Amino acid sequence: MEKIVRQNLLFDFYGELLTKHQKDIYEEIIINDFSYSEVAKLEGISRQGVYDLIKRCDKILEEYEEKLQLVEKFQNTKKMVAQINHLAGELKVSNDNKLLIDKIDEIERISNAICEEY
Asked: Quick one: which of 71, 72, 106 has its CA closest to 86?
């Protein structure tokens, strides 16, 4: 399951950099969950050809991620935003002024980290 999620993320970020043919076939297999046989029949190529193309696309997308690290940055940003939301939720129920100041400082630290990353 984790591999499929990663493939989807990589495709979301870098799919437009694939050729139209690669993009169409990769989308059918990874996004639309077609079988290799179904896509092979639709495209008029062998099942092995579809398999090879998917492996090649996986490699290409991983190479883009290795160089650009957009997926990693996206996931880190999501974690930081979740932390901000958690801290903000704690602030809503707190009556302790020291705790409020500490939480606000932490929110500022995280939001600054997000801003520095972009």
From this structure: 106
Contacts of 27 (CB under 8 A, 6+ apart): 11, 15
pLDDT of residue 87: 84
What radius of gyration do the chain's Cα atoms show? 21
pLDDT of res. 29: 96
SS3 category, 95: coil
Assess whether pLDDT exceeds 90 at residue 33: yes
Q: Do 107 and 88 meet the contact criterion of CB atoms below 8 Å apart? A: yes
Please report, for residues 9, 112, 115, the alpha-carbon distance to residue 24 in angstroms, rounded to integers and kept in the order given: 16, 39, 35
Give the CB-side neighbour count of residue 103, counting CA atoms within 13 A: 18
**The overall pTM is greater than 0.90:** no
